[in-house]
Write a structure and sequence with these properties.
Chain B: This is NEDD8-activating enzyme E1 catalytic subunit. Chain B: Its EC number is 6.2.1.64. The structure holds 2 protein chains of 2 kinds. Chain A is an alpha/beta fold. Chain A is built from 22 helices and 10 strands. An 8-stranded mixed β-sheet of chain B has the order 3-2-1-4-5-6-7-8, sandwiched between helices. The chains are: A alpha/beta, B alpha/beta. Chains A and B meet through α1, α2, α3, α4 and α16 of A and α1, α2, α4, α10 and α11 of B.
Chain lengths: 558, 419
């Protein structure tokens, strides 16, 4: 990992200045991942019947805009359409002179203007043809974006090809005031840097201090004899450790464990503050009192981590397992030995003298370093047992893993959902559809639209069916009967009404996009793309529905 | 109005304007009149989300768009403000953006104004149908909010200008619709956007513990002591470099690690992370509401949508409450609990940090007397002795005070309740 940031004396490079506002979110490592990635956008797959040119692909182009600006390595737009008058009313990355030209070429040209660091390519052929002709075409991409509705056969072929290559894929549709997108991830997609809220991640080990920390606390045994200035500057962590020891003396060596005891304990701490000063209290004591309820908890392993430890690849990593699983396995072993995870080592700021704070901070840092060393030794041991791995796991990666160990995540990716394919999806839909304000009716409406577009593209329905009551009713009935085949009561009248309303609203533009909704959706989809590519933060699992009528969105695992 | 050419071009948009949907108002009449209403609605866009807002409004069928922005283009804008190029650095944002969108979208007129929103008066704001803001300062938001609320004349429905506000920070953001005097306003919601607490000066001056404390020291104290003849310029990299080196030195002295150039810049400029994708989401959320308000083609947001993208896609849409004691849109004074033993100076200092006030340079008076007045100098000198006096010696428990601040045109009314 190269360090993008300058050494002591030099200011930032012009690239660092350009990307400054985003480097603060995903750092040099995230930027590097972004710059090494190429993205494929399948923006349409040919016309829907004779009159319609098919998907206008605004949502795809808007998504790419949000990836080109932060500096993705490169992109390719696949789009067989030619630019029409209607495109100019909805797509910002086309101009008057683009009329009649290849839409792939024109959108590519105007998107490239946004960032000279980014490589852009285009293909004016249908995706199926490209996949068939060149087996090396798909593997060059880190992510596939698809603008739908796309006919099922083409979509399924693309899903399968991406899945076989473990390439994540986002399938998006934006029509009228509605949009939905689904993320297909590989069966196991691990993330180390999930960036949890720092407030929720403090791990201070106050109930089970290691010897050096306990030692530091015992040094303020003379608390009562300190002068006012010193007393008001004892770091609150040490105060808590001190009063816990006192508590244990009168409670058979037990620490305050339930709410009642903690409240009692909190009052003991509070009463230790000196109030005869002009401020009428002490800030460090205020901090200690405020921290009792959230910091006096025994270490417990989060269930998500427990699940990861139970996964086969964590228990017995293979020679070809990714670095993630080897480190996770080492951390598992560490946990089995110590019943805690490696210490993250960070310390919140607190009222204290500089030197006292730094000394306390060093106790945490030293312990964290020791834990990292221990994990590293286990990793090296595993590496030598596994043998024949391409390269030694970098120490930096082990360090980052240890710091984030309590918050790592593994997403079990699944396919782009299709209503009549899997029982799992039926179940998920049946579970969420009756919740008031559920957005599932919009998803169902999109499924109906997908089916109609498929039938038009395959020639079994005419192009006019996009706005035909009969076609919509027939398809809606088909989806509804599929959903209720084993349980009629799933869809009551009210739910049915909401599904009908969603299809009516969706039909309003006859498959056409509205710029605002596509731009908003392009922002959401790009956000997920960034998280997938940088492997930072936590991506969607797996479907998001946006309702632009009510300005709401929901996530579903479908 | 709609030529054959134009109806082809706008065919998707026109479908939702000429056909009612299951959620559009029953009394709404879709058709050419709605299209005309949209095309003749004068709309104002302002602030850091300006690029996205202008693009979206132009492609939503608005034809008469005004834009206000005082900033010039900086290299750090290029990662998200997509109408600007390397060669535009230093030029005014409003002009470059207006020219670009006019050139791209046929038939739209965009009028730029390079300056502050505060430069304009009520007559100016009265010409618009809707105001869309993606401003990056809370101060500017509060100003436009108070101004639009002050303009409402119950006798004249045209004087009510919906304010649509959007803001982002990193992966998060919010969009809200404000109907001045009718719905919850920015001031009602002020405490939902609490400022970060400032580091106490004594920590910075005597007991630093974090690299940020060293930077604050270099910025606030060392610069004053050693370079007081050079006004500090946050955009001057040499100035940042000086502060950075001074902070590094201070860090060494106290064994504090982690001062970097990037962190120095972040602290002294109060930089908020910003990315293209979040801006796209929030800007489009605001312009989508503008389209719905201007055309009635669907119901508009009532009244707040927040978005967080760190973990999946999370939005929360709710109706923020209108507060009867809102200093701007309410008619009651807001209760504020204070320690009667605190001096007026200390009280004034806390007003900057209190989430419900956030007033940096307040002056104040009771109905009978002036407690402290910053301007003119004579009055300042005359009221200065009050700063050292305790609140209990200046006001009664439960007394109402009026606070003014040069950043706002209105007075804030607080009822002081003794702790």
């Amino acid at each position: 990992m190269t360090d993008l940031f300058p050494s002591a004396q030099t200011g930032p490079s012009s690239k660092e200045r350009k990307y400054d506002r985003q480097l603060r979110l995903w750092a040099a490592s995230g930027q590097k991942a972004l710059e090494e990635s190429r993205v494929l956008l399948v923006n349409s797959d040919g016309p829907w019947g004779k009159q319609s040119t098919g998907v206008s692909g605004v949502v795809g182009v808007e998504t790419l805009k949000n990836l080109v600006l932060p500096g993705i390595g490169g992109f390719t737009i696949v789009d067989p359409a030619t630019v029409t008058e209607a495109d100019l009313g909805v797509n910002f990355f086309l101009e008057e002179q683009s009329l009649g030209k290849s839409r792939a070429a024109e959108t590519c040209r105007l998107l490239k203007e946004l960032n000279p660091d980014v490589e852009g390519n285009f293909q004016s052929k249908p995706i199926a043809e490209l996949l068939k002709k060149d087996p090396d075409f798909l593997p060059q991409y880190r992510l596939v974006l698809v603008s739908g509705p796309l006919k099922r056969s083409a979509l399924n072929a693309l899903c399968k090809a991406a899945r076989d290559l473990n390439i994540p894929m986002l399938y998006t549709r934006s029509v009228g005031f509605y949009s939905t997108f689904s993320l297909q991830l590989p069966p196991s997609f691990p993330i180390v840097e999930t960036h949890p809220d720092p407030e929720t991640t403090q791990d201070l080990r106050l109930l089970n201090p290691w010897p050096e920390l306990a030692e530091a606390a015992s040094r303020i045994d003379n608390l009562e004899t300190l002068d006012d200035h010193q007393h008001g500057h004892v770091p609150y962590l040490l105060l808590l450790l001190h009063y816990i020891e006192k508590w244990k003396e009168t409670h058979n060596g037990n620490v305050p464990s339930n709410y009642k005891e903690k409240s009692e304990f909190r009052e003991i701490v509070r009463s230790g503050a000196r109030t005869s000063n002009p401020e009428g209290g002490e800030e460090n004591y205020d901090e200690a009192v405020g921290a009792v309820l959230k910091s006096l908890n025994p270490f417990s392993l989060r269930s998500a981590i427990r699940e990861i430890f139970e996964m086969e690849e964590c228990k017995t990593p293979r020679a070809d397992s990714s670095d993630f699983w080897v480190i996770a396995s080492a951390i598992r072993e560490f946990f089995q030995q110590h019943n805690v995870l490696p210490l993250p080592g960070s310390l919140p700021d607190m009222k204290a003298q500089s030197a006292d704070y730094i000394a306390l901070q060093n106790i945490y840092k030293t312990k964290a370093r020791k834990d990292i060393e221990e994990v590293t030794n286990i990793v090296r041991k595993l590496e030598s047992i596994l043998g024949s791995r391409p390269a030694e796991i970098p120490e930096k990666d082990i360090e980052i893993f240890c710091k984030n160990a309590a918050h790592i995540k593994v997403i079990h990716g699944c396919s782009i959902p299709e209503i009549d394919r899997e029982a799992r999806i039926f179940k998920a839909i049946q579970n969420s559809i009756s919740v008031p304000d559920s957005l599932i009716p919009i998803f169902i409406a999109f499924q109906v639209l997908d089916k109609i577009v498929t039938d038009i593209q395959e020639g079994t329905l005419s192009a006019e069916s996009l706005d035909s009551e009969t076609a919509w009713n027939a398809q809606t009935d088909r989806v509804l009967s599929a959903l209720t085949h084993n349980n009629q009561s799933i869809i009551d009248e009210d739910t049915q009404e909401r599904i009908v309303e969603a299809t009516q609203e969706l039909r309003r533009t006859e498959g056409g996009e509205l710029h605002n909704i596509s731009s908003l959706t392009g922002g959401l989809v790009a956000q997920e793309a960034l998280k997938v590519i940088t492997r930072q933060y936590v991506p969607l699992d797996n479907t998001c529905i946006f309702d632009g009528v009510r300005s709401r969105s929901e996530m579903y695992k479908l | 109005m709609a030529s054959a050419d134009s109806s082809l071009r706008w065919k998707h948009l026109h479908k939702v304007l000429t056909k009612s949907g299951p959620f559009s108002d029953e009394d709404w009449v879709p058709g050419p009149e709605t299209i005309t209403a949209l095309e003749t609605s004068k709309i104002l866009g302002a602030g850091g989300l300006g690029c996205e807002i202008l693009k979206n409004l132009a492609l939503s069928g608005f034809k008469d768009i005004h834009v206000i922005d005082m900033d010039t283009i900086d290299i750090s804008n290029l990662n998200r403000q997509f109408l600007f190029r390397q060669s535009d650095i230093g030029k005014p944002k409003a002009e470059v953006a207006a020219a670009f969108v006019e050139g791209r979208v046929k038939g739209v007129k965009i009028t730029p104004y390079v300056g502050k929103i505060q430069d304009k008066d009520e007559d100016y704001y009265m010409q618009f149908k809707i105001v869309v803001c993606g401003l990056d300062s809370i101060e500017a938001r509060r100003w436009i909010n108070a101004t639009l609320i002050g303009m409402v004349d119950p006798e004249n429905p045209e004087s009510l200008k919906p304010l649509i506000d959007g803001g982002t920070e990193g992966f998060k953001g919010q969009a809200r619709v404000i109907l001045p005097t009718l719905s919850s306003c920015i001031e009602c919601q002020l405490d939902m956007h609490a400022p970060r607490p400032a580091v106490p000066l004594c920590t910075i001056a005597t007991i630093p513990r974090q690299p940020q404390h060293c930077i604050e020291w270099a910025h606030q104290i060392a610069w004053q002591e050693q370079r007081k003849d050079h006004p500090f310029d946050t955009d001057d990299l040499d100035h940042i470099g000086w502060v950075y080196n001074a902070a590094l030195e201070r860090g060494k002295q106290f064994n504090i690690h982690g001062v970097t150039f990037q962190m120095t810049q972040g602290v002294v400029k109060n930089i908020i992370p910003a990315i293209a994708s979040t801006n796209a989401v929030i800007a489009a959320a605001t312009t989508s509401e503008a389209l719905k308000i201007a055309t009635s083609c669907n119901p508009y947001l009532d009244n707040y949508m927040m978005y967080a993208g760190e973990e999946g896609v999370y939005t929360y849409t709710f109706e923020a409450e209108k507060k009867p004691d809102c200093p701007v849109c309410g008619n009651l004074a807001r209760n504020m609990t204070v320690d009667p033993e605190m001096t007026l100076q200390d009280y004034i200092d806390t007003l900057g940090d209190r989430p419900e006030a956030q007033l940096k340079k307040p002056s104040m008076r009771t109905e009978e007397k002036t407690l402290y007045q910053r301007f003119p100098p004579q009055l300042e000198a005359q009221t200065r002795p009050n700063l050292k006096r305790k609140l209990r010696d200046l006001v009664e428990n439960g007394q109402e005070i009026a606070v003014s601040d040069p950043a706002y045109t209105i007075d804030f009314r607080y009822r002081l309740l003794f702790k």
